[in-house]
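Extended Data, panel c. Modelled sequence:
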Amino acid sequence: MDEPFSGSDVLIIVDPQIDFCPGGRLQVPEGDTIMAGIAALAPRFQHIVMTQDWHPAGHLSFASSHLDRQPFDVVAMPYGDQVLWPDHCIQGTPGAEFHPDVLGAVERAHLIIRKGYNPEVDSYSAFFENDQTTRTGLAGYLRDKQVRRCVFVGLAYDFCVAWSALDARREGFEACILKEYTRAIGIPVQSGTSVDIAEAQFRERNVRLVSSTNAQHRS
């Protein structure tokens, strides 16, 4: 890119953590391959926010917290259906740390939002916990910074990145995803995969999928 991103853009780097990379407890295929690229992308932004999954041990979103349940089962929680995950990103463990290849972006981040620390409610989005009412405070922070557009990268494309982008639209921001800097879990569902569900929602709510080579141009 020859032009910088706009000063009214924010780069939101979602969960670039060791447990989401190959060898981690909830590995996203090829999740590690985007980390160096994200670090190289970060200097092009004036505003950078990162999220970090930060679960207590025994979180209710873990399959191990439910008798006779396996990872990727879906159960009903008071706030809605919940995918059960392998234990991952537990507070203070190596797997919860940021991937070493993305540390250049970590150093530039203005704000790091830890999510999933409520033991009874999972949290995918950078803006809301999964109950869709408990706010992280990110929207107010971005408005104070006069941000208009949220640019998303990180893990995983079909869960935490997707929910964050959709909530950015809900909060009145423009939202785009730099797809080459994301990777998906791709859980099979009745109608296809979790990627299909996410992308259908993107079309409905005007979340744009763009290349980093043209992200600065608005449609």
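The chain has a mean pLDDT of 93. This feature is highlighted in the accompanying rendering.
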